[in-house]
Structures are given as structure tokens and as C-alpha cells.
Amino acid sequence: MGKVEIYDTTLRDGAQGETISFTLADKLRITEKLDEFGIDFLEGGWPGSNPKDITFFKKVKNKKFKNIKIVAFGSTRRKNFPAHKDPFLKQLLESETEYITIFGKSWDLHVRDVLKISLDENLQLIEDSVKFLKSEGKKVFFDAEHFFDGYKRNPEYALKTLIVAENAGADKIILCDTNGGSLPFEIEKIVTTVSGKIKASLGIHAHNDSGLGIANSIAAVRMGAKHIQGTMNGIGERCGNADLTVIIPILQLKMGYRCVDEDNLVHLTKVSRFIYEVANIIPPNSQPFVGISAFAHKGGVHVDAVNKNPETYEHIDPVKVGNERRILLSELSGKSTILHKARMYNLDKNPELIKKILDKIVNLENEGYQFEAADASFDIIVKKTVGDYKKLFSVEGFRVIVEKRGNKIVSEATVKVRVDKYIEHTASEGNGPVNALDNALRKALVKFYPEIEKVKLTDYKVRILHPEDATAAVTRVIIESADETGSWGTIGVSENIIEASLMALLDSIEYKLHKTRVK
Questions:
Q1: pLDDT block averages, 10 residues each, the chain of length 519
Q2: 499 near 514, Cβ under 8 Å?
Q3: Which of 132, 259, 343, 363 makes the best surface tag, with the fewest CB within 10 Å?
Q4: How many domains does the chain contain in total?
Q5: Residue 347 covered by a domain
Q6: 94 lies in which domain range?
Q7: Helix, strand, coil percentages for the chain (3-state, nearest 5)
């Protein structure tokens, strides 16, 4: 089916998402990661909008990338400046990138109500800007902003903006669904019409305000677009942009197009989680292809079928995108789930051990444990049952104090930890009792096990199991942790929330240490 170019705008459009703020170091790390993954184009930012983006282009100017071509982004010239004197166009040139993307208005509503100029004047802005950048030896992509809305209101004028850009020398014409309100059948019809009028290569830039950013991008490709703009994990302003972590595997695995090298596609999940980590966002479990629940199976019937043939409940092999099959443990699991887990430890031919594990899980569930989100705690139980567990440390005692100092509430935890013959007795403060306890544990253990510095607590959930018991009710704590290679869940259950939290914390640390030290 040929090649579809992937144009990533995570650093510019993605950074406009609420709560997202990339530092210069973040932007450089993301650039390197996406280059390794094989993205074709990376929009580095708008050089005229802020000093950080100006510095970014200076930093990447002399870097050698394997795959990525860095793109500077900006707008057409201002109405009161000739192109060669427009300050923002000059800053685009000063970025010294081979490729420049400029956006121009293609919806007459914006021309009249926002720019407050005539329709012909807007066409002149587009023509002058593209011609000037081309005369400076640049490859120019023209983003037709609000194109689909503009076409639906005034198709003749919207097409004129594309024709003017093409005649001025634009190398690619990108049709933008900037408000994210178009539907796939509309996209298909309009792209088909445009492809009959425009000779330049067409692209699509879709937003997700109707939940259709991905579908609209796929629809455009079906009608001939060979260039897709989007962001990793769909981050971006309002409801976000078209999600490249979904678009890429759909095009490559289901439609036969080539987006990245096949050897790189297996790193998709890792790239997705890297972007979330840098953006300080908790990944949604249910995200297609790369989410932790994307290939998770809970019901006993499902698990049984997947064990016999994974295709029964999986639309692709998760390995192809770097994800993994997960078998969840719950009251719905049944023996099939335990058997699947047992195979991981080569226990499928040891029915006595399997029964022992199953009995233990059932008893713990009766006490309030729930393992579907605590796979790491389950693994530790299995290790202990089969004799594969090594005790790397023990907590000899702990104390947590919460007190008011002036107008401030302060939490302080003290822990006494034994590692072999050594005793560490440490204290640490935190923004709450659990955070203080976590800090104290790490402080005590890090000199023995430095790898725990890479473990981050990404989520903390508390559930009261018997609310009718009021303050004496049993508490279930589930903690999600992550390191540079993946994430895992652990659980603790107790009438005391601090003890339940400590149990989950200890399981998290032990899981990490067994993963790195015990083979």
C-alpha cells in the first residue's frame, strides 16, 4: 500500500494540552526518542512564540538524526508586513530548519471575524508567505486551518486557499479539522473532491473534539492522503489531537501501509509510556494498543479461550506493538486464570501447587484482596508458594507521626529496616503519612538497592470494604508503580490504612528487586 508519512506535533500542539508543560530538556529527550522510533517529521515548536522554542531550534540545529526531519511552525505573514519584513517569518528562517509549516485561514468566518480583512487579502497573505519561504530555499507545508469547516460553509473559497498555496510552491497541503467536529464520511467526501483539484501531496491534521480524530485521519488516508499529523497519546488542546499510537498500528498492521520500520513498531508501547512519564500524566489503562488493559483478560471463559487460541479475544498479537497479554485475577477468573499464571512458572504439570495457589487466592479474596489491578502482589504470592522467593530485606518496625506545626500539617515516618546483618534506622517527612513512609523506606534501602530510585508511585487508591463498620472498617489500598521498563500494581488490606499502605509499598519494592536481582 505504500508509505504514509508520520508528522508528530507533540512538542507544539501536544504541549497546548491542559496541565502539560515541557521543559527544554523534555523536548530534547522526546525528540531523540521519536527519532529512534522512526517518526518522519517532528514539529519542534513556534520560534516566534516563546524563548524556549527559539532555544530548542538552536540546540537541534547541529544534531544528526537517523530519521526525523525537524520542522519549524508558524503562521502566514501579518497583514501590515510584507513577507520579507514580517518578524515571525524571519524567526522561522532563523530556526534554520529545512522544513517549515505555516498555517493560513481557509474558513471565511475566520478571515472576516478574526483577521478582519477581505477574502482576497487573506489569499495574498498565503501566496506571499509561501513564495517568500520557497525563495529562501525552504520546503513548505501549508496547514489549511479550519479547512473542513470552511469547505462546508464556503467550498469555493476554501479550495481557493489551497490552490493559491499550491501555485505559490507549497510542497504539501494539509487539510485541518481544527475544531474536531467533522465526521468520517464528510472527511472522505471532501478529501476525494480536493484530491481532484490539487496536485500537491495531501495530508490530514485532525483534532478529537468529537472523539473521531483517529477515524478521520484513517478516512483521509483511504481517500489518498499520504501524510498524517498527530501527537503521541493524542495529547493536545481541549480533547486532544489524533492519537498516533493508535493510527500507526492501524495503518501498518491492519491496512498494509508502512509508517515506521517493522522492527521499530515493537517499541510503540515503550514510546507511549515514555511520553506520559515526561508529561507527568498517568496513562489511561484502556488506551488501545499500548494501554496496560489493552490485552488484559478477566473472565474465566475469556481466559480459557485465549489459552487455547489468543485470536479468540485479541485483535492483534500484543507483542507486535511491544505490549503484553495480562491475565487478571478476580472472582470472575476461575481456574483458567490460575492455570495461565502457573504456566509462567512452569507449574501446569504440578496440580498440587496450582491448588495451593488457588486456595490461597480464594482465602485472600475473602479477606478483601482483589488482584486484577495487583499483578505484582500476585507474582510475589506465587514466588512464596513455589519457593522462588528470596527475602532481600525486612521491616523491623515503623512509626508515623502527623502533627501541626504552626499553620502547617507535617507527616514524619521512621522505619527500622534489616538487610542481611545490617540495620538502617531512618526518618523522613512527606506531604502525607504514606508519602513520608515511602520516603523513609527508600532512604533506608537505597544504599543497598540503588535501582529503587527509578521506581515511581504513579497512583494510589483507597477503598473502604465495609463502610457499615465506620472508622473500624477494613481498608484496601492499591498502589501502581512504574520504572523505565513498565508498570505494576500491588495491594494491601488491613483495618489500619497505614498498615495496608505499607503492605502495598513493600510488595512494590520487592517486586522491583526480584525483577532486577532474582532470576
A1: 93 90 88 94 87 88 91 92 90 93 95 93 95 96 96 96 96 96 96 94 97 97 96 95 97 95 91 85 88 78 72 85 74 53 65 78 78 80 84 92 88 93 92 90 92 87 69 78 83 90 93 81
A2: no
A3: 363
A4: 2
A5: no
A6: 5-260
A7: 45, 20, 30
